[in-house]
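testing teh design pipeline on a random one, pls ignore if ur not involved
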C-alpha cells in the first residue's frame, strides 16, 4: 500500500483530535471501546511521546507511552485502522515511539492480548516473570472513602 500522504506526528496534549481518536479506538481496538473524550484527554496529557498516523486528514494510527526517562517505559494504546493493517504502518508506529528520546531506557514494557507475534518481530520478548496487575485502584479508594464517611 503506497500512500505518500501518510504522516507520522508527535503531539502535545491539545493537538490531538480526540473525536477521531475515540472513533479509531471504537473501530479498531476492542480493549478501548467506550473510552470517553475526558478520559482520553487525561491519558494523553500524562503521556510522552504521543504519536499519531494520518492519511491526509484522517487519523489512522495512534500510540502513546509513559516513561521515567532512564529506567522504565511502557507503550500504550497501539492501534492502526483495519483498512491499513498489514502495510507496515504498525511497525513503523512502534519504532517511531521507541526512537523518541524519552524512550531511551533500560526496559520498555507493553501489554497485548493477541499481538505477541507482531511485537516479537519488532524485538519484544515474552516476559512471564514480572507481570502483575492491581485493578481499579481509583474506584476502590473512592468506595473506601465513601464507606468510611457513611460510618461516621
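output:
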Amino acid at each position: 500500500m503506497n500512500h505518500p500522504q501518510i504522516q507520522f506526528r508527535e503531539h502535545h496534549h491539545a493537538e490531538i483530535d480526540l473525536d477521531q481518536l475515540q472513533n479509531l479506538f471504537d473501530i479498531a481496538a476492542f480493549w478501548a471501546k467506550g473510552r470517553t473524550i475526558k478520559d482520553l484527554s487525561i491519558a494523553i496529557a500524562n503521556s510522552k511521546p504521543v504519536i499519531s498516523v494520518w492519511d491526509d486528514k484522517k487519523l489512522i494510527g495512534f500510540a502513546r507511552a509513559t516513561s521515567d526517562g532512564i529506567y522504565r517505559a511502557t507503550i500504550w494504546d497501539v492501534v492502526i485502522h483495519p483498512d491499513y493493517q498489514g502495510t507496515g504502518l504498525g511497525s513503523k508506529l512502534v519504532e517511531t515511539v521507541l526512537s523518541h528520546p524519552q524512550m531511551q531506557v533500560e526496559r520498555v514494557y507493553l501489554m497485548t492480548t493477541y499481538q505477541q507475534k507482531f511485537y516479537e518481530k519488532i524485538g519484544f520478548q515474552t516476559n512471564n516473570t514480572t507481570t502483575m496487575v492491581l485493578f481499579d485502584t481509583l474506584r476502590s479508594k473512592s468506595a473506601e472513602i465513601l464507606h468510611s464517611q457513611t460510618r461516621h
